[in-house]
Structures are given as structure tokens and as C-alpha cells.
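Q: Here's a chain of 483 amino acids. Please give me its 3D structure as C-alpha cells.
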Amino acid sequence: RTQIEGQDIPVIADPLVRAYGLQLSPPSLEDLTADAERVQRALAEQHGVHCSSVDVAALRQISPRLRERHWSTQAVLRNGECVAWQSPQAALLGLAVDLGTTKVAGYLIDLSEGRTLASHGLMNPQISYGEDVVTRIGRALESPQEAQRMQALAVEAIAQLSQELTAAAGAQVQDIVDAVVVGNTAMHHLLLRLPVEQLVMAPYVPTVASALDVKARDLDLPFAAGAYVHLLPNIAGYVGADHVAMILGTELWKAAGVVLGLDIGTNTEICLANHGRLSSVSCASGPAFEGAHIKHGMRAAAGAIEQLCWANEHLEYHTVGDVPPVGMCGSGILDALAQLHARGIVDQTGRMLDHPQVRTVNGQREFIIVDRETEAGPAPITLTQHDVRELQLAKGAIRTGITALLLESDLPDEEIDEVIIAGAFGSYIDVSSAIIIGMLPALPVQRFRQVGNAAGTGARLALISKEQRAIAATLDRETARLD
């Protein structure tokens, strides 16, 4: 599964780009006005809009387009710059992208209405270079060719998404006139081919923190002639634009009381809103929750055990797609550890104790979850002692981040009014299991809220609304970071 769904936050559609239908009079011997100036004059006369400039790539299209369409066109303006020409009554399309370390989610938006026309997710092809951002940065530092390859893979993912989304909406990629991309600081820098060496060296500072506007063509993205890609600001070397989007998409920036927001993934970012004051931290939770480094771990594909509970003296499970089990994805692995700990099979230190379903293979203990004597399959599905240690590292990183934020604000767990859980993995976990293993504070489950892909929601908000984009632009300055 790639998590694309997120909560809807109603905002008035007020995008940065606007489309203006024009009916022009053709040139004649009495009117020799150049085509671009003719359009600028018509915008002023017919709509009272001042067009200060025309993008050079749009200029290359203007003369044939006007004549093909018999002097009827739709001019697309962004901050006074004409960036594209459309056929009359064409939809004004925008693209929002959450460029995650593991997964990429995209949303095609009708900017005039703020409506999502199509959404889709896919795996980040950079994963073939490494599952974590530090490994990918290391590859990019090997040579300029490797850095270019890392960028090309990110662009390839965005381009593929845009192709699939526009096809689903009966449109073309060239119809996209504006885009917003969010990602962690490393993904942001790799996409833009910015220097990344300083990200892995103390004090871990980004090349740029402020929001950026880049021409889509400069990234080799085949959008409208003069379309821009807007990137939300970064907060720190490991707290990036996706975290800003999460704060925007959960409205943490205006939360009352004490609210904790977590975007759980390969990199987990956590924000504490303490009566209007925001502070954030990033945790290297690693790929264990994606099923990596786990003996029978896998991604959330068909056959992955995603839920486990103890019943009638054995573990009952549910798989993705309701098909026979072939492994365990993150949520199922978390449930397994929680159930074994609750039954005393795994002690407080994470050590696996004696039990009829615990065996030793090659000197390592493992608990049999699905036995091939009772289930079809080539081998039993187990949770090993090594798996437990991997999960302890991942959950320990997240719990340490939460504790650091609370200590910095001198707050006990009990004063947290709400915990918002976002991200692909966070959407599917059983909160009770996360509490049992100590990953999340031991609070009443009513205080927890799972919101899906909040970074994707924030990217959509920034695309749809100038006001939301302006709010996002200030969050990097208003959010304290724990180094």
C-alpha cells in the first residue's frame, strides 16, 4: 500500500495561478501590435489584469497557438507572469506531491474549485540506492554522475505520477500549470541537485531553508511551458518541507493546549504544539516498520499479515487482500511484538523467553506465528529475537524523540491533550499495540487520532490556497528545533 488518503481541511480555493479567457482581434495593416503585447492589452481591457511579463517558453508558443485557435485563448498568470496558454474553458490543473523516502504520493487538483481529481502512489525508485537518506546522500557524494542519477530517479517518479494522474482525469501532463512538492530535507536537496555533504556533517545544516519557486522545465518535468514547482521551506537538516506540510495539514500551527504530531516513516518527524509554541525533532526510525531487516518482513502488499491478536491460545491474523500469508508488514510486526510482550513471551528487556511456540534455529530464538504444518506455505512465518531488537531500535528512536520534546518543554506525558499520528505506517498501526511496547505515551486511546497522509494534505493546501502557502512559509521560522 502507498498511503495517499488524508483528512480534508476545507479552504477557499484561491490559487496563485489564474486563468483568463480572451477573445482577441487579429492583427491587420491598421493594427500591427505584437502578439504578446496584444494579449497583455486584452488582459487589461477585458479583465483589468496587469501582465508584467511572459515566460520565454510561453512566448515560443503564443503565435501559433493564437492562430490555431482563431484568436481565442485562455492565458494563465502567476504573480503577473503569463506562464501558459490553454484552450478556452480548459481546466486549471495543479499537482501536489509528497516525495517520501520510501513512497511517493501525488494528487491532481482542479485549482479553480480546489477539488482533487485523481490521486495515486508509487514506490520511490531511489530505494534501489538505499533505504535511508544517509545512504542515498553517500551515493550522491560518490560522483556528479551519481548525484545526477539520484535527481533523475526523483524526477522520474514525479513524471510517472503526473502521467498516470492526468490520464485518469482525461488530461495531459502539459495541462499542469502549477505544482507543490514536499519532502524531507535530503529528498528536497537531491531533487534540486543542491549540495548534500553538509547534511551528514555536524552541525547538519541545509543549503537553503526558505520556500523556493523553480521552473518545472529546470527539473525536466514536462508541465506547461512556464509552470513552476513550489517547494515548501525546510526547518533543519533532518526536519524538512514534508514536516512543514504535516504541520499545515493537521493544523498543528493553531492547536490549543498540548498536542503531539508524529509523521511516522523511515524518518519520523515529531512536532509538539505547546499552547501555540511549536518545537520539532527528527528521528532515524529506520526501515523496520516498512518490513525491512525483519526475517519475514515485507511491504504492505497482498499476503502481508497486517493485524494480529491473541485468541484461543494462539495468534489470529488478518492479511492484506485476505489471501494466504507470505510475510508480515509493519503494523503486523508491531502487533506481534505487543502480543508477545503482553503474554510474557517477550520480557521488558526484549528477551524472548521459553514457550511451546518458541524454537531455536541456528542459535537464535524465534516465535512461530504461522506454522507450515497448519498453513499452506514453504516455511513457517516467525518473529525472531533479532527482529525484536530491530523493532526496539525503531520504537526507541521515536519514543526518545517524544521524550526529548516533552523534557524540553518540562511536560509530563499526562499533560498531552491529543496525539496526531500521520504517515503511511502511522495510518495502519494499532495504537494499543504501540502503547504496549512503549513506542507511544500510555494515554487513553481516545486522545489519539490517525489522519493518513498529512504531508500530502499540506501540499494540497499550499497548492490550492495562497493563504495556506503563506502560512507554510512562516512555519520554518516559528518552529523551534532540537539539535
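Q: Can you summarize the key feature?
A: The chain has a mean pLDDT of 92.
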